[in-house]
Write a structure and sequence with these properties.
Elements lengths: L13 E3 L4 E2 L6 H6 L3 H4 L15 H5 L6 E7 L4 E5 L5 E4 L6 E5 L4 E9 L6 H11 L8 E9 L6 E9 L7 E11 L2 E11 L4 H17 L3 E2 L14
Antiparallel strand pairs: 1-3, 2-3, 3-4, 4-12, 5-6, 6-7, 7-11, 8-9, 9-10, 10-11
Length: 236
């Protein structure tokens, strides 16, 4: 049995909640439709030397969509973040500038944060600020599979872009989903990255991105209308 999501020590700025229920497969349908282009955009991997091996339990869990659904609450960033296969995620929400959630079994990571701007927080301004702070995936650096406007967090002008990076045949496939949004003077950023190798790499990348976009991004909620004060990072 896998361990519970790692909670922050007592007094830390956030805490993990117990898994609530198994993530239903049908919940992934809208995001899965967005990702229909992913396999078509990725170079075909090299043919395996023999018949495919039966999937092991670890490989099955790495799809994320079959695990128990849980939720992490961050008081520091004033948000609730649903997590597919929550028991497999390690969440770091201490003094760093981002909330970082890592799912080692599927080579998947999430970066999330909210912050306040001095002026109007347009989506473009929020994205520009986030990219000053950190090197984040860019659609122009990969093969974009899908882009759409979403109402997440509620009331924000947010666009999510899902894509895969260029890779030679047989090489591991890297997928990403980036979302930036603004509302009033408040900004939001969500970044998911995953990697898979082997004959099922395309399918695994698509399923993982579908899970985090539909469950984690689609279910993310803010707790208050006014964001708590989080120290800003200086530009590099």
């Amino acid at each position: 049995m896998r361990p519970e999501p790692r909670a922050e020590p007592e007094g830390a700025p956030g805490h993990a909640l117990q898994p609530k229920a198994r993530a239903p497969r049908r919940a992934l349908a809208p995001a899965a439709a967005l990702l229909a282009l992913v396999p078509a955009c990725v170079p075909a991997p090299a043919a395996p030397p023999g018949p495919p091996r039966p999937a092991t339990p670890a490989q099955a869990a790495s799809t994320l969509g079959d695990g128990e659904l849980g939720e992490y609450r961050s008081d520091r960033f004033d948000l609730r973040l649903p997590l597919p296969d929550a028991r497999g995620f390690r969440v770091e929400d201490g003094e760093g500038p981002w909330l970082v959630a890592t799912h080692a079994a599927s080579s998947t990571s999430l970066l999330v944060r909210t912050w306040r701007e001095d002026g109007r927080a347009s989506r473009a301004a929020c994205e520009a600020r986030a990219r000053l702070w950190r090197d984040l995936p860019r659609p122009g650096e990969g093969l974009t599979a899908a882009e759409r406007r979403i109402d997440v967090p509620e009331g924000f002008d947010t666009v999510v872009v899902i894509g895969v990076a260029d890779s030679p045949p047989g090489a591991p496939i890297d997928g990403f989903a980036v979302a930036f949004g603004g509302s009033g003077r408040r900004c939001f950023a969500f970044v998911a990255e995953t990697r898979a190798a082997g004959p099922s790499a395309e399918q695994l990348v698509a399923e993982r991105l579908a899970a985090v976009v539909e469950i984690s991004l689609g279910g993310l909620r803010l707790l208050r209308e006014i964001a708590p004060a989080v120290p800003r990072e200086p530009p590099p």
